[in-house]
Design brief:
heterodimer; A: about 325 residues; mainly alpha; MetI-like fold; 2 domains; two-stranded antiparallel sheet; about 0% strand; disordered N terminus; disordered C terminus; B: about 350 residues
């Protein structure tokens, strides 16, 4: 067709991209389109700035009225006579439940990712990956419903067992006999929820590990585990870390699953198996309905802290990945 | 690692070392399962979770001990790694299978035509019946408006990043899109609450929920579209530009059509993701028992919020309704996912790899 005359044409204009970049300024269509697309980019940035600004503004309104220390107080009483509210319990609950979730989920997720990428029979691996993908899409409220109505009664026995044999560790000492609506159960439920997320990302990274390294290790007589330890895991380390951070971000901000499972309180207790405690997101969900405008501002103040926490986690993840990339010798 | 000097006997057909029979892992798994449940039964533990954990421990330890005795230390380590990986897999399957099974089993009890076509008007938690029609209407409207707002912005931003962006602005946008992906949904809800409701004085409405969902949806759309646009071969762009086609027409007529399959998939996955968001809807739409077709005024219901509210009522009837709505929600999300992935597979060869 007409394509043959155009084939010799490129040599006539060897520097393709630079002229087109200059050309964009001359065509009105290009100008409009560039303006639109750059505008949406700027809109996103503005939005982020607006989120930070508005949350800070409303939080300032609330905190300036607060008679207790916002960071260290164990009260949540923004509508009370002395206006007192603080996030100490929420910080504690959020961090503890996320740590439990990470401790359980990360090793298991790495195991599943290895299972899918290196151990499972090939015919099983593809459907498995597919199913894990789908599980990552299950809405959190469904996990919450399942956690409250199935997991909580189920973990009752395990709680008793932990109390009986590990009660001497203090953290596993259960002082009451209520249902397992505690931070420990929340941690387990969060682990179940973030498992597919971490597994997905980790599996992707494991699948990209250099085949040559693996084959070289095999040729030297390494067992499958040695291959994984020497070539797959070092290559995937930054991937595992970033996946874990993604999971952590999700665990920190999870609302509904915690709100359905936990029976919250503002009394501090180091016993993980006792009901009580709370997380940022759960507290917002639980206190929102009874809050007047000032109460909402107080909740927004706690939301701002959650926002900053997730920003820090994401930023840290990005830093770690950037640094690991330089040191990882497996890029070849 | 320890050298195994015995491996220097290359007898054809046989391996130098003694090997475990092929059925050994399966046999060990059976034996440890039996041992675990036997001991659990003997000790009178009611929770089957503990039986399983005990069996898993027996399996791993048993494998290690026996393999060390038969095959040597390195092989034992390999076996133990294999068994740990299998145990991880089994551990993860149990809750996820239980979740799926419970939702389906308890959801189908109430899920029927009546449930899908009636609202909760005039019903309380003490009576059976009622349905989720109002919630479906609410969710569809809120998600539709969010999609209408998020997709153009997301697409244009992705185009900017891939086709134009080089400088500091593009770097900043990339970074903040990453950061935005990590915003908890409740924070997005609080942001709209602090602006739309508290500062501008608007009341609760489906549209307010859509605004929060938009914030959650935009970064997902940007990310997936960006990935897809990067897959479009540069030769296509160059060919079009060489023919004298303006850049914006090249993008609209060449780049986007090439990547449209992947972009559609990304958008559908994003829709599936936000359709299940409860927290922002709870703060901004508040929920309702009645049918409200107008997303711009007054409270609306929503499917995920309906699940939560029925759960909180705490009667057997409301639990049934919660499970029914949860099943509907999961099916909606899963169908979106499956169709999206089918489109991705169907359109995949077009990327010209």
């Amino acid at each position: 067709m007409n394509t043959t005359p155009t084939v010799p044409a490129p040599p006539a204009e060897p520097a393709g991209p630079p002229p087109s970049a200059k050309g964009t300024a001359t065509r009105p269509g290009d100008k409009i389109f560039l303006g639109l697309s750059r505008g949406s980019g700027i809109l996103l940035l503005t939005l982020m700035a607006a989120i930070a600004a508005f949350l800070t503004y409303r939080a300032y309104i609330a905190i300036s009225e607060n008679e207790a220390n916002f960071l260290t107080s164990f009260e949540w009483n923004p509508q009370g006579e002395p206006v007192e509210f603080g996030i100490a319990i929420l910080v504690y609950g959020t961090i503890v439940s996320s740590i439990i979730a990470m401790v359980i989920a990360v090793p298991i997720a790495v195991g599943i990712a290895l299972f899918v990428s290196h151990y499972a029979p090939r015919r099983l691996a593809a459907p498995l990956a597919y199913v894990i993908d789908l599980l990552a899409a299950v809405p959190s409220i469904v996990y919450g419903l399942w956690g409250a109505l199935v997991l909580v009664p189920y973990l009752g026995g395990m709680n008793k067992w932990l109390d009986q044999y590990l009660g001497w560790t203090y953290i596993f000492d259960k002082t009451g006999t209520g249902p397992a609506r505690n931070l420990f159960t929340v941690g387990i439920l969060l682990a179940v929820m973030i498992l597919p997320v971490i597994t997905n990302v980790t599996r992707e990274v494991f699948l990209q590990s250099p085949k040559m390294h693996e084959e070289a290790a095999l040729a030297l007589g390494a067992t499958r585990w040695e291959v994984i330890r020497m070539s797959v895991l070092p290559f995937g380390r930054s991937g595992i870390i970033s996946a874990s951070m993604l999971g952590l971000g999700r665990a920190l901000g999870e609302t509904m699953a915690v709100a359905t499972v936990l029976s919250p309180s503002f009394l501090f207790s180091g016993h993980l198996l006792d009901p009580g405690g709370g997380t940022f997101a759960q507290n917002i969900a639980a206190k929102f309905n009874e809050a007047d405008e000032f109460g909402r501002d107080a909740l927004i103040a706690s939301g701002l802290v959650l926002f900053v926490m997730t920003l820090l986690v994401n930023g840290a993840a990005r830093l770690i990945i950037a640094r690991r990339k330089e040191y990882s010798g497996a890029n070849a | 690692m320890d050298r195994q000097p015995a491996t220097d006997t290359p007898a054809p057909g046989t391996l130098a070392h003694r090997r475990m029979p092929r059925w050994a892992p399966a046999g060990l798994a059976l034996a440890s399962a039996a041992l675990g449940s036997g001991l659990g039964l003997a000790a009178g533990w009611h929770s089957k979770v503990q039986w399983g954990l005990l069996a898993a421990i027996f399996f791993v330890l048993g494998t290690y001990a026996i393999t060390t005795a038969v095959e040597g230390k390195r092989q034992a380590k390999d076996r133990i790694a294999t068994s740990i990986v299998w145990v991880c897999f089994a551990l993860a399957v149990v809750p996820l299978a239980s979740l799926t099974w419970t939702t389906v089993a308890r959801g189908v009890k109430v899920l029927d035509g009546y449930f899908l076509s009636h609202s909760m008007a005039g019903l309380n938690q003490m009576v059976p019946g009622g349905g989720i029609y109002h919630a479906i209407i609410g969710t569809l409207e809120q998600v539709a408006f969010a999609t209408l707002m998020a997709v153009p912005v997301g697409l244009l931003t992705a185009i900017y990043l891939v086709e134009y962006g080089k400088g500091r602005l593009a770097k900043a946008v990339t970074f903040f899109v990453d950061v935005m992906t990590g915003i908890p949904s409740i924070v997005a809800g609080l942001f709209i609450l602090s602006t739309w409701v508290l500062t501008f004085g608007m009341g609760p409405s489906g549209f307010a929920g859509s605004l929060a969902l938009t914030i959650l949806m935009m970064p997902i759309v940007v990310r997936s579209t960006e990935e897809m646009l990067k897959l479009v071969p540069n030769e296509l762009r160059e060919a079009s530009l060489a023919l004298g086609v303006p850049k914006w027409r090249t993008i609209l007529k060449v780049v986007l059509p090439t990547a449209i399959g992947g972009i559609t998939t990304g958008v559908m996955l994003a829709v599936a993701r936000i359709a299940g968001e409860t927290a922002p809807v709870m703060l901004l739409v508040l929920g309702s028992s009645f049918i409200n077709n107008d997303p711009f005024s007054d409270e609306q219901a929503s499917l995920p919020l309906y699940v939560y509210q029925e759960y909180m009522l705490g009667t057997p009837y409301s639990y049934d309704r919660a499970w029914g709505a949860a099943l509907t929600l999961i099916m909606f999300v899963m169908i979106l996912n499956l169709v999206a992935r089918a489109i991705a597979r169907w359109k995949a060869p077009k990327t010209g790899r």
